[in-house]
Amino acid sequence: MQRATAPYILILPSFLLAAAIILWPLKEIVSLSLHDVNRFGMLRDFIGLEHFRVLFADPDFIAATWRTLVWTAAVVLGTLIVSVPIALILNEDFYGRGFARILIMLPWAISLTMTAIVWRWALNGESGMLNSALRGLGLINTNIQWLAEASTAFPMQILIGILVSVPFTVTIFLGGLSSVPDDLYEAAATEGAGSWDQFRLITLPLLRPFINIAFVLNTIYVFNSFPIIWATTQGGPANSTDILVTYLYKVGFRIGRLGEAAAVSLIMFAILLVFTIIYVRLAMREAKA
């Protein structure tokens, strides 16, 4: 009996601490979302789901929600596609591999806000490095206002999101690749399997648990990512690059509608919770199969 209950007793303090850290703020946010709240966070009358009704009637909120889904899907999938070949290359034995790994990991050590600010300078429509480089190569004749229009600003923000997410994802994949025994590749080569067959039949299946981890963690990080959008365009022009987290910031701290901001945060929490539950269940079902 003691042996059966010992694990639960050991994890109980950590569980209670995590519950306190998560559940108390969640309770406060729920309370804010159901009451009329002044700019100083003081609760007034109970109004039920009125804040949610106002949000779903706001076209800017609906647009920010769809844009958040596009932003998250594009950055996460783009990161996975780019990271796999990079990890495969860095897993090979070649001269300077250690230095190459350091170069890939360095951006991870830099503040995301600072990275976004550097990219804002690089994408400046008048004196940015990107326009200068493209003019020097003869690819453009006039400057492109990269961040002045949503048609160019949002794709560039997605590109920045992919670039800053690659180091973390490559680290996860390198950990997975290091656990694959070399004997499997040697046996496959003996049987006549080429590089593509080895990747498709050995590397990819054994790397799948690490791809799942990278997919879930990157989805959570990117969905809640604030610095890239805010540091480059602050959701502009005309709210055309707003995602939910920047919309929440504007509603809560610029306009002062804290009740609606709390409702936005609950909606974001619900979206991520539903996604995590569905994905984990699908992954578990696939593992059992």
UniProtKB/TrEMBL annotation:
GO annotation, cellular component aspect: plasma membrane
Protein name (database record): ABC transporter permease
TM helices/strands, residue ranges: 7-26, 69-90, 102-122, 156-177, 210-230, 261-280
Positions of the ABC transmembrane type-1 domain: 65-279
Pfam families: BPD_transp_1
Compartment annotation: Cell membrane
Keyword Transport: yes
Keyword Cell membrane: yes
Family: Belongs to the binding-protein-dependent transport system permease family.
GO process annotations (BP): transmembrane transport
Domain of life: Bacteria
Upper classification of the organism: Bacteria, Pseudomonadati, Pseudomonadota, Alphaproteobacteria, Hyphomicrobiales
Keyword terms of this UniProt record: Cell membrane, Membrane, Transmembrane, Transmembrane helix, Transport
UniProt topology in membrane: Multi-pass membrane protein
